[in-house]
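It is time I had a proper look at our fold encoding. Can you supply me with one protein entry, sequence and fold together? It will help me judge whether the discrete encoding reads sensibly. Leave the record below and I will have a look:
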Amino acid sequence: MECVKTYIFKYVAKLHGKGSLRGRVEATTALQAKRQVMLGNELIKDVSVSLLTNQKAARKQAFEKLNTALPA
């Protein structure tokens, strides 16, 4: 069985109108992280993601787990 390496990304999601959401999400790539944040949330118009450099410390903080049921 193959083990897929995942990373923790931080994101800032811009909402329609005023406001933004910030958080952390687990994903294999930046594109997958972006899709996971936008999935099922119609209020978000844009998402910017960046990889956290200290992954060990990031895993000790709260983050959204990897959603394996994402469409391709």
User: Anything to note?
Assistant: Residues 13 and 47 are 4 Å apart (CA to CA). The mean pLDDT is 90. The two ends are 21 Å apart (CA to CA). Residues 30-38 form the longest helix (9 residues).
